[in-house]
Amino acid sequence: MRVISFILTTCVSLAVASKSPCIELNDGNKMPIVALGTGRGTASENANVDEVRHAVYWAIEAGYRHIDTAAIYFDETQVGQGIADAIANNLVTREELFITTKLWNDKHHREQVVPALKESLQKLGLDYVDLYLIHFPIAVKADGSPDDVDYLETWQGMEEARELGLTRSIGVSNFNASQVDRVIAHSKVCPVVNQIEVNPTNTQEELVAHCQERGVAVMAYSPFGFLVSRNKPNAPPPRADDPVLVEMAKKYKKTTSQIVLRYLIDRGLVPVPKSANKNRIVQNIDLFDFSLTPEEVQQINKFNKNISVYM
After folding, report:
1. Cα–Cα distance for residue pair 134/16, rounded to 1 Å
2. Is the whole-model pTM more than 0.90?
């Protein structure tokens, strides 16, 4: 298993004026290193899901070529509409986009995987996705009660989806180190990605290194951590006005949010920032004219408390 390369390459197929950087996956496919995260309203749980359509369009307009969604987000239709709008207005072609979606926990039986992906594709209005992930390594029944399905069985269904051309690449999400190793050891196709929460308060250095050493790229969701309040006034630092981040932001003439996203990129990760605000969407991809020093990366690592924003 080759170690994943951290050297950022240019996605030649991606028609972006600023030449969007990519990371090469272990199957040879290239993935843009910043993805627009979606979900309910893209920004908040109570926002209107129709905002996703606009956010996707604005993101593509701003130069994003990677959009991340999931069946459980219940927004694949709106994501697809945003993509269709962008293609119709000649902003991009389908081949220039990288679309990620995920299999939910109630579809883990091998025979359920391909139909689940076909349902997602129908909602997205696409013939294929670029990356399909097992959202969690746990299975549940339709009523939400636990189901006894080994994720290795689920992975066989993922391999079948890839063989059928319904997805170009396959990977996992929220898997720990031993689970990643078990999939690698018992599969025909190695997962290309493990998507996990990574941010300054939850740096996940051991798991990130473990995946990267095995050639598995890491996508980082909830990249800002507690940089915004998240209605948790007693949450650990850093916040947006943290002096350490403010100093770096002044040095590079960026915002503290951009510093945190760049921090993840400089660790070889693919951040997945969410926003439904057009200006912030543009800001969140304006990351390629600077980089942090190794010392600055380590300085941000010191914020780690192994605390998830979902705890």
Report:
1. 30
2. yes
